[in-house]
Structure formats: structure tokens, C-alpha cells
Amino acid sequence: MNILVWSSYVAHPVGGQERTSLELALQLHQRGHRVVLVGPYDNAPELRSRIPTEMPYHFFDIHLPWFKPHHAAAQLLWRLTGEHQTQIVSAHGNVFAVFEVCRRRRIPMVWTIHGARPVEPTGLIAKIKKAAVARMLYHPLCHIVGVSRVTADVTVRRFPQMDSAKVHAIITGGMDDVSLLGLAAPQPGPPWQLGFIGRVVPQKQPLHLVDVAAQLCDSIDFRMHVFGDGPLLKELQRAISRAGLTERFILHGYWNKGAAGMLQQLHLLVHPAAEEPLGLVMIEAQLAARPVVAYRVDGIPETVVHGRTGYLAPPGDVGALVEGIRQLTSLQFTQFSAAAREHAGARFTLARMAEQYETLFQRLCASH
Which of 76, 79, 250, 305 has its CA 20 to 30 A from that of 314? Predict the structure, then answer.
């Protein structure tokens, strides 16, 4: 198939959307499909360096101060879909320009939604955006992939007139899954190496890590690693200092050397996010035989099995997170570690993800 993969957003620090869209393009390329990649991957050198020279790549950042950015994107995409005889488009992020090109060329578009909040925004601008999205979703050429079943279900609830047969759930595979599956399983502590991996932003609730650490101090010997950067980093540093926990925390900052390099330093992952459409880092932790302690929100229960591969606490209940860590660092740690790898390795690999996308793309190409 001739496939164009579009990602409108590549941030620093790198997040799940940009990693997923690149890995999908690479997997399809390795399977012999003719893939064209479009997006601002120059913004993340660690991702840009992975794009093979034989796979056509075109830089376009819709968030730069272009004159009429959506018009510029549409012009580029119109040219590329014609030159490469594109049969299907895999779109990630802002897809309005992509849709207009696909509609005019009669090319199926599969829009992967990497997150949909259960609470619908209000206001005039939100209503205008929703109407524009509905116009796309109700079009016969547009199909939706949610990165979790929760994400797909939220989309259906928001747009009830959409044909449910056009909504699919494909859970993202762990990035660099081969390396993660080959990583040595951790030997039980102490000292226990706990860790958070992600953007230090409000929705991840990194300050909960300080409360967790304060409650753990009297029961286990541990260190809390934080891999990530973001607007709450300085506030996190101040909270750690105020709590007298400087010796317990290791702040690594942004890490661009791959998930394996972070996870090999940990026994288990602590993820106190308030919202998480999927939680790619939790898949990667389990592939690396690292159990997960997290809140039971959004798509997390689809990837972490409570009581088997990790521990899921009620949202916002720091005490329950602490209890989960105590349980996982008990005599059962080795069983949790092995079960986490077995569970993720059977369900959340890149090959499995690519196969599901490939099957969907082939079906849609055959029917249009």
C-alpha cells in the first residue's frame, strides 16, 4: 500500500503521540509498504535520527507562524498524495487540512485519537470546534482509532451520530519493545528504586510523588527517580526541599536515551496521573518486567492488571498508592515482575500494533 503518515505535533519533551506515529510509520515501512512521513520531527533530534533515508520525510510544523498554516499544510499534502499515489492516510494530531485533502482526493483517512477527555469543554469556540470535528467524523472516508477502548468510547459518546463500525481501538505497542523485553528483570531491593517517567505537568500530578515519599519513609528504604521536564519541575523541587526529602529524590531531567535506559534503573513505576488516555510508559515498564503503581483512571486499567502486574488505587488516594508500593515491594515482587512482562509481551508489542493497523488499512483500501 501507499501510505502517508501525518503528525501535526512533535514536542520537547517527546510524548506518546509523536513516538507512536513515528513507530507506526517505521513498522509499516519495514513490512514493505511505501510510506511517506510528514511532520515536525526535526523538533526532536532523537526521533529525527531514526527516520531511514529511503523513507520519504517532509518537515512541516503547523504550529509555526505560517501565513495561513492549514492552507500551507493542505498544499503540501495535495502535492504529496498526488506524487506518491497515496491510497490511505494515517493522521495524528490536528487533521483538518489532512481531511480536506482526503475528501477532495477520495482517499480514506484513519485518524488516531491519542486522548479524549470525558468532560466536554464548553463555550462558543468549543462548539465551533466540535462542529468542525463532527463534519469529519460523519464523513464516510473518515475512520477513528482510539489508543484505548476508553478513548474510543468517549469519542462515540461525544458524537453519537457517528457509525460505530468506523470506530476502532488499537492499543499502542511499547516503543523499542525488543530491547525492553531483553532487559534483565530487577532483583528485589532494598534499596528500592521507584520512578516516575513523563512530562512534569499538572495532569500527571508529580507533586503526589512527594506525598508518597513522605508516607513511605518510615516503612521501606527507597529512592524516587524522576525522569522528565516541564512547567511544574521547579515547584516539585521546592516541595521536595520543604518536605526534607532531598536525599530520597533523584531528578534526572529530560531523558532522550530511550526507555530502557530509564527503566533499567528502577524496580517499579509510580504513575500518579489524574488523566491518562493510555499511558505508554506503563506498557513499556511492564515489558521491562517493572510492575506499575498508578491511579485507576481512563485507559490505565486496560494495560495494568490490578493485583497481578501492578496496583491500581482510587483516583487521588495517595495512601492507597503507598499501600500498593508496600505490597509490590513485599515477598511477591518477583511474581509481579514476571507477570508484568508476560502480560505486556503478549499484548502490547509494536508488531501487534502494526498488524492491527495494517489489517484495517487493507480493508479500507479494498472498500474505497
Answer: 250
| Residue showing cell 498554516 | 69
DSSP string covering 248-282: TEEEEE---S-HHHHHTT-SEEEE--S--SS-HHH
Q: Quote the pTM value.
A: 0.87
- 12-54 tens-digit pLDDT: 656 778 888 999 999 999 999 999 999 999 988 888 999 999 9
pLDDT digits (tens, 9 = 90+) for 315-346: 999 999 999 999 999 878 999 999 999 999 99
CATH assignment of the domain containing 198? 3.40.50.2000
In this structure, the answer to whether residues 125 and 182 fall within a common structural domain is no
Instruction: Kindly state whether residues 65 and 131 are assigned to the same domain.
Output: yes
Q: What is the largest CA-CA distance in the chain?
A: 65
Query: Is there a contact between 13 and 43 (Cβ–Cβ < 8 Å)?
Result: no
H-type helices in 288-332, by residue range?
318-328
